[in-house]
Amino acid sequence: MTTKNNTTDIHTVDQAIGLFASLREEIPKGQHKLLLLLAFLSVLMISHRMATSGMSATVANLVRDLPPLVILSWGGGLLLAAGKVDVSIAGIATLCGIIFAALTQWLNVTSIPALSISTIAGMLIGACIGATNGYLVARRRAPALLATWAVGTIAFSIAGAVAAFAHKQGMLGSTASITLPGLIPVFSHAAEEFYFSLAAVALVAVTVIVFRLGWLARLLGSNETGAVYSGFFTERVLLLLFAASGAIAALAGCLFAIGIWASSTTMHAGKEMIALAIAVLGGTVMSGGYFSLIGISISALFWLLLTYLITGTSTGMGVEDGRILSAAFAALIILVCYPLGRSLSGEFRTIHSADETNRTR
After folding, report:
1. Would the pTM of this model clear 0.85, i.e. be above it?
2. How much is the average pLDDT of 53-78?
């Protein structure tokens, strides 16, 4: 009798998380207002660039930097939504970027299909590393922060060894980086690199939606105990999420390498914290239960443009002017946080039942 009830529960839950249900994203109630503000400020920054010295340099930088940053933040956000944390994504991106660059040189890649094969190989390695994180956290009950930090550190070390070995074998670069001269015939026009990056972003978004990764992550993060009693195999879900995060981080590492036609063993140090901060700014809550592809994308755009302001990159203004303007934007966000603090943090949730809607804390 118990087996029959469990089977019915699993079937009912599986129907509840169909494709159309997975399209629905969720962020804290007040975060919608903050995201609208971030989008407005982003438009202001881009408009300023247009009014000062044209868009060509800014567009080129956005095409190069935004897709991998968005993808990396999506991967980190998935685990945050599940109530876990993955700080190995920077190490995975570094290792897989180095392996991708080495494969590109070794295979003498001269076409986009061949480049895609190298990218897929890097993603498979990233998925395996992510699955290792999932096994340690889900099956062995290791603390996610500690386990993923250790795995990420090992990935950084292996990346250094691979780069040094590749350099000794005569590959172009140094003991700490590998260059990609073969991309010159592959991306003869900037538009081709943009289309490749856009296809990668679309691939990740479709995968997250079709395999209901965001929905599953939100379910675990909001009520893991309830998920267990509803018939979910939470260990398998966590393993899947960590593997997906690893594959996504690997893809980001490949895109970062394509953007500058090289991959370094140090270029991604600290990017895991940036990705997690962007995910939180985009509506993901550290305690879990919230995730939005669109929200994270908006916050990544704002974060990147703000970085351009601070560093004076393609903004048409000096570094100090950019710092003053970025401080003004930060002050606006603080003003928004003052009246909307609790609703931004996800402290209150709305639970829908059959007959009524209850607001719970």
Report:
1. yes
2. 85
